[in-house]
Amino acid sequence: MREQEKVFKDPVHGYIYVHDPLIWDLINTREMQRLRRIRQLGTAYLTYPGGEHSRFAHSLGVYEVIRQVISHFERNGYGWPAEDRRLAYAAGLLHDIGHAPFSHALESVLLTQHEQWSEQIIRHPETEVHQVLADVAPDFPALVSDVIGKRYPGRIIVSLVSSQLDGDRLDYLMRDAVMTGVDYGRFDLPRIVRILVPKHDRLVARQSGQHTVEAYLLARYFMYWQVYFHPVCRAAEVLLRNLLERAKHLVRCGEREISPFSALNRLLAGGYGVADYLAVDDSLLLAAMHSWRDHPDGVLADLSRRLIDRHLPKYFELQAPLSQDRLSAVVDLVRTAGFDPAYYCTVDEIGTVYYDYYLGAQTGTHGDGLFLWDETSGALTEMSQVSEPIRAMAQETKRKVRRIYLPEEVAGDPRLSLQLNRWIRP
Ligand code: NI
User: Fold this and answer.
1) Distance, CA 125 to ligand 1 centroid (Å)?
2) 239 DSSP assignment
3) DSSP of 319-379, one letter per residue?
4) Where in the chain is the domain with CATH 1.20.1250.30?
5) pLDDT tens for each residue of 172-211
6) How far is the CA of 326 from the centre of ligand 1 (A)?
7) For residue 137, how far is its CA from the centre of ligand 1 (angstroms)?
8) Which of 134, 181, 223, 240 is most buried, by CB atoms within 10 Å?
């Protein structure tokens, strides 16, 4: 029975095939199953009702993209280290194993990074993923962790898991587009797989696939503005972050038993280990918020009700950073309306960091640009050198979005909003 092919039905890839018993065993570990209870897009489902898909589905998808790319290399006789196939599969499947609930909000409150947790969970002798990996070879967990941490010497394996055209991005962009219904975020994934070639120890695209890569980069650009940077998606993220900051503040002021869940309480208190981290998922956090609706702390109770009932903060777009004077004036307005500005007045700046690579690719500082391979001359050319649309997009990196988020009661007050508009618009 164990040798039988396993198949998952999937809205992005049609089918996901598992032949290797190692992959099947990894899928069935409790750490992988936990990812079923973590939404891929955090709070974006409050904006896009379809965006409810899990990190689990995404992780299977990353494995499947890597499986397809490797199969394409092998069928076409491209030189590639076949003995590392399992390593690439395992690293792709497990790359998000350390994700915190609700995408990135909790990470920023705990000042931690999921990439480091992924490695820690893989290396920790008591986790099931570690035990399954260690059955392959005692050093196998460390190798998988090295691929995820980009320290593994075989660069081609690393770039299958993280680079400009890696399994991770190819799956999440396409999956997020399909699930949210943002159609212009889709691209021709099967053709991307077919134009990839391992050259000079990195993943590059055949020159003939230039337009396919352009379409992919444009899709990615749309997804950033339509989903990841969407003002209402960010509003929910800002609200959740402020709520968790308040909970953390109360715990650190002495309320150790803030929620019915000891693992979450320890996370917020700051002294926690792998087991506590893994015990917390979206459902647990939502249950904690339900319990906080009636919490004696008015701020925590109010923010929890706002998130659960979807009363998201309203935003004003800032054309330039607010001067200290004006910011203080807004803070005063918020306070006068009866809200604590620390939790009800948030300036959110996004933009450049996500687009770093376009500029990096252009200036050559990043070393991680997207390259086209000329089949005749064998030359590699960085994408923005030959593509007008990509050059234009690189210009876009200079765009930075700043928004100020305020409670509806403040933002909606005609007198205040008139004043705010005067200050906020240039
Ligand atoms: Ni991922």
Assistant:
1) 23
2) H
3) SSPPPHHHHHHHHHHHHHTT--HHHH-EEEEESHHHHHHHHHHHHT-SS---EEE-TTT--
4) 241-312
5) 999 999 999 999 999 999 999 999 999 888 899 999 999 9
6) 39
7) 25
8) 240
Give the model confidence (pLDDT) of 354-373 as tens digits. 434 443 444 443 356 788 99
CA distance to 31, 113, 149, 203, per residue, from 135 (Å): 17, 28, 21, 30
CA of 256 to the centre of ligand 1 (A): 33
How far, in Å, is the centroid of ligand 1 from the Cα of 171?
8
Mean pLDDT of 69-98: 93
CA-closest candidate to residue 191, choices 174, 173, 212, 171 = 212
Q: Does the reported pTM lie above 0.90?
A: yes
SS3 content of the chain, % helix, strand, coil (to 5): 60, 10, 30
Span from the CA of 118 to the centroid of ligand 1 (angstroms): 11
The residues whose Cβ lies within 5 A of ligand 1, an ion, are 96, 168
The CATH fold of domain 241-312: Growth Hormone; Chain: A; (1.20.1250)
User: Hey, what's the torsion of the CAs at 145, 150, 152, 154, to 10 degrees?
Assistant: 130
The pair of structure tokens assigned to 291 is 């319990």
Separation of CA 331 and ligand 1 centre (Å): 37
Q: Average pLDDT, stretch 60-88?
A: 93
**166 C-alpha to ligand 1 centroid (Å):** 10
Confidence of residue 398 (pLDDT cuts 50, 70, 90): low
Say how many Å lie between the CA of residue 126 and the centre of ligand 1. Answer: 24
Cα 179 to middle of ligand 1, angstroms: 15
- Say whether pLDDT at 67 is over 80: yes
**Bridge partners for 8 per DSSP:** 16
CA of 396 to the centre of ligand 1 (A): 25
Cα-to-centroid distance, 288 and ligand 1 (Å): 26
Tally of residues, the chain? 426
399 burial (CB, 10 Å; 0-12 / 13-18 / 19+) is: exposed
Tokens of 339: 């809200």
Task: For the chain, give every residue range classified as CATH 1.10.3210.10.
Answer: 6-181
- If one looks up domain 6-181 in CATH, what number appears? 1.10.3210.10
